[in-house]
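User: Fold this one for me? It's Phosphoribosylamine--glycine ligase.
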Amino acid sequence: MRVLLIGSGGREHAMAAAIARSPLLDALFIAPGNPGTAVLGTNCAVRADDVPGLIALARQEGIDLVIPGPEAPLVAGIADACAKAGIPCAGPTQAAAALEGSKTFTKEVCDAAGIPTARWERFDAAGPALDYVRRHGAPVVVKADGLAAGKGVVVAQTVAEAEQAITDMMTDGTLGQAGQSVVIEDCLMGDEVSLFAFCAGETAVLIGAAQDHKRIGDGDTGPNTGGMGAVSPPTGFDREQQEAALDLLVRPMLREMVRRGTPFTGIIFAGLMLTATGPQLIEYNVRLGDPEAQALLIRLESDLLAALAAVAKGQLDQTDIRFANQSSVSVVMAARGYPGTPVTGGVIRDIATAEAMPGVHVFQARTKRNAADELVAAGGRVLAVCATGDTLQQARDRAYDAVRVIDWPDGIYRHDIGQRALLAEG
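Assistant: Here's what I get for Phosphoribosylamine--glycine ligase.
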């Protein structure tokens, strides 16, 4: 198979590494890719949200399967364009991708399908939103309605924090169009986990689960980010519980999407809160998570490409997903200044030394080559340093040993990824 993988982040590097192992693969193209994916296939200078450019590339290279990595091309309609061009695509239509593209749409689907989720209200102007939080009190969650690259959610512990989030998004426009409308919802309490499944029509096949660490600082402090690390599988959320969560939170959504005439095909990523009264939905995403994908895929034993090809054809009965009975930890190394303005251009050395360590994989995200052909930081979340182990403790030790080997003075990272999971194990 000739495959086009769309994206340029750490998730896509991890996906490319898994796809490259497939005996079905004849050629792999990544658009636009990064220096890490360049080792695994051919990078192509087409933006991930340039749908006409991606279709032209797919036609030019005789692509047999398009695999979207991030949400942007899906919300922009890449699956619809692929269908029109007669090219199989392992992702949902633009209408179905509204599950991620609009928080309001997701809440309406949940209400119609009877899916447990936090009580919510939508606001299109700052004044009524501010009045609501002053009446409601805190804590509350303020969410930009549109796509905001993982930065559109503020868990406000005080009314002042909620007011600031509303002002930032709706008055100051810090998130652009994404924050012109907001959803404000009750703050759910419990452990947050990420659940992944292949879906087609009303059918869902479990992939697995991971636990992300969203906040920038140790001890879950500071602002939310796109994700600073992950563990897989999550402690206290076994396969039986994951299947039960699919029955409660994913399969009813699929039936409702079919009823609406917008059936979902692709990967669903359900963010869940394990509350005292059972799992509740936080949000849907229509692709693998980042950095959860990195933690999941290094445990994968089955053929990812074969599974994605089956998804594109709607043949979920042929989808085989098997993981090693190991734990994995992913530690994100970000550039100093993230999630604000990151320091870019710093040279990164000794990745190969880290990857030579047992069980270690380093996935690149926001990197590039400078004029001297040195690897440098080119954005906020730059590397995902991952490791597997027979125990969570072993995986965690290996990941942090590898982090310390990498020479990048501008790099910052959390020191407690997986620590809470270890405490929960007892």
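One thing worth pointing out: The first strand starts at residue 2 and ends at 7.
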